[in-house]
User: What shape does this take?
Amino acid sequence: MRLKDKVAIITGASRGLGKAIAESFAREGALIAVCSRTNEIFTVADQIKTTCSSCYAGKLDVANYNEVKEFVEAVHKKFGRIDILVNNAAILGERTNIADYPIDVWEKVININLNGVFYFSHEVVKYMMTQGNGSIIMVSSSVGRKGRARWGAYAVSKFGVEGLVQVLADELKDTGIRVNSVNPGPLATKMRKQAYPNEDQSKLKKPEEIVDIFIYLASDESNGITGMQFDAQDFKLNEIKK
Assistant: This one.
């Protein structure tokens, strides 16, 4: 029960990594708040309630500031605090050259993957600062640390997320709030299938297999760890403790 009674918001939690993180946090004793663009989120919330004393769910667009603000306010009203934010919601967009990239798709990817992360962080930080502690975990990508051809808006948005981690961690370094990023690596998910349609996903790790780094960063074990980049598939807690 490493997260006992901590209140955690996980965005994009209706499937894949977000769902796996929410389920693992619930098993560790956290009180869960999840959101997604689809009605699937309410089914996920019902499943989580079997292992969690409380799970709040909301259907919203993370690219809509007013919807984000209302959701965060509702979570705080329900639980009285917010201890953890996992900014997971993202879309892939198009795998094409910059010269050919559709303008409307570019704007949509940036709005969801970067502006949505800013909106949630912007709102949650206010409550964490009053509490004097908290953990914000950004889900990044290898192409957000080293750009590669034909990754377009997705890569650029993840570079922006990494920049936000650095800025926010520096701003909050004396507040007890820590901000870190995690690159999940290749996982057997629908988004990965969209990016690599011919890949054999049976050879990839499942999201449930790489949640340890998220539990560590959400727990008090990571107090003092901020402004760092982590690779989920290389994470070993025993080495950290040494």
